[in-house]
Specification:
251 residues, 42% helix, SIS_dom_sf, Rossmann fold, UPF0309 protein E5083_23935, alpha/beta, five-stranded parallel sheet
């Protein structure tokens, strides 16, 4: 471990991971952004899903100033964030076979849409089944995960596969198994997770690529503006009216 305070060490670790992502995932980010742009241009809808703390990067791109207005959150009751009580129930639900299919079949997702599935480990039944079933329905799937888990852990899905095995595009966050960047002799367990920082950066990079790709094609990207800048509410109202049939958090 390098010298410096724990804060310095964590920030150095996060910066290192972001540099790796920039250098090693550039092609995948471009492909994911292009997939989103293709979906928007062809009239499809965009959705993002994550369970537990993986829901945070999903929520970060929904109804977000500077983000695509068409990105909707696919919510699975009991697994979005840690709002369920007890919190361990959310972890248990991620391992339930059949839940993802029931959610998708009850959702507005359809052939021609795109779904971003975020799962750090990619090993639980919920993200694996969701990716499998989504693709069977004709939905394009972008997986955001740590590929390291597929070689260092066992799948918890009956197929023995991981999220990465059922995606049109995979973004690898490079997070080490365990998601803890620091150790100290005086602390009995590794600590300081960086997955949220890196995964959120991947998500925003992908969305930025989509917006720029649409603009390059002569299509105005359906972006939201901050409601705290003059004219922001009027701008957003125009976008909501134009794309209202593809936005599900507004009704």
């Amino acid at each position: 471990m390098s010298d410096g305070t724990p804060a310095d060490r964590f920030l150095d670790a996060a910066i290192g991971l972001l540099r790796r992502v920039r250098e090693e995932e550039a092609g995948a980010i471009a492909a994911a952004g292009t997939l989103l742009a293709d979906t928007v241009e062809s009239g499809g809808r965009l959705f993002a899903f994550g369970a537990g703390h993986s829901s945070l990067p999903a929520q970060d791109v929904v109804y977000r100033a500077g983000g695509l207005a068409l990105m909707n959150l696919l919510a699975v009751p009991g697994v979005v964030g840690i709002d369920v009580s007890p919190a361990v129930l959310g972890s248990a639900l991620e391992r339930v076979d059949g839940l993802a299919s029931a959610v998708l079949d009850s959702s507005p997702l359809r052939d021609g849409d795109a779904l971003v599935i975020i799962s750090l480990s990619g090993r639980n039944a919920l993200p694996v089944e969701m990716a499998q079933h989504a693709r069977a329905l004709g939905i394009k799937v972008i997986g955001v995960t740590s590929v390291a888990y597929a070689t260092e852990t066992a799948s918890r899905h009956s197929s023995g596969t991981f999220l990465k095995d059922h995606c049109d595009v995979v973004l690898d966050s490079k997070i080490a198994v365990g998601d803890a960047e620091l150790t100290l002799d005086t602390v009995p367990a590794p600590f300081a997770p960086a997955s949220t920082v890196v995964t959120s950066a991947l998500m925003q990079s992908m969305v930025a690529t989509a917006a720029a790709t649409l603009a390059d094609r002569g299509v105005e990207p359906p972006l939201l503006r901050s409601g705290n800048v003059d004219g922001g509410h009027d701008w957003n109202a125009r976008i909501m009216e134009k794309y209202g049939d593809r936005i599900y958090y507004h009704h």
